[in-house]
Amino acid sequence: MSALPPIADITVRPCPLCANSRHQLTVLNGSEHPYSRKGNFSTINRRNRLPMLRGSLLARLVVVSNRVSVPGEGSTRAGGLEVALRPALQKNGGVWLGWSGKVAPAGKLETRFIRYKNIEYVITDLSKGDFEEYYSGFANRVLWPILHYRLDLAEFARRDLSGYFRVNNHFAAEVEKIIERDDLIWVHDYHLMPIADALRRRGHSNRIGFFLHVPLPPPEILTSLPNHEQLIPLLMQYDVVGFQTDGDVQNFVRYLISEFDQMRKTRMFESAGRHVTLKVNGQETLIGSFPVGIEPRTFARLARHNEQSPLVRDLVASLGGRNLVIGVDRLDYSKGLIQRLDAFDVFLANHSEWLGKLTYLQITPTNRAEIPEYSELQEALESAAGRINGKYGEVSWTPIRYVNRVYSRSVLAGLYRMARVGLVTPLRDGMNLVAKEYVAAQSPDDPGVLILSRFTGAAIKLRSALLVNPYDAESVASALAQALAMPLEERRARHKALHAEVCEYDVNQWQGEFLSALRAASGSETYQSHASIGERPTPDTIGARIAPSAGVQN
Ligand code: F6P
Question: First and final CA of the chain: distance in angstroms?
Answer without folding.
Answer: 40
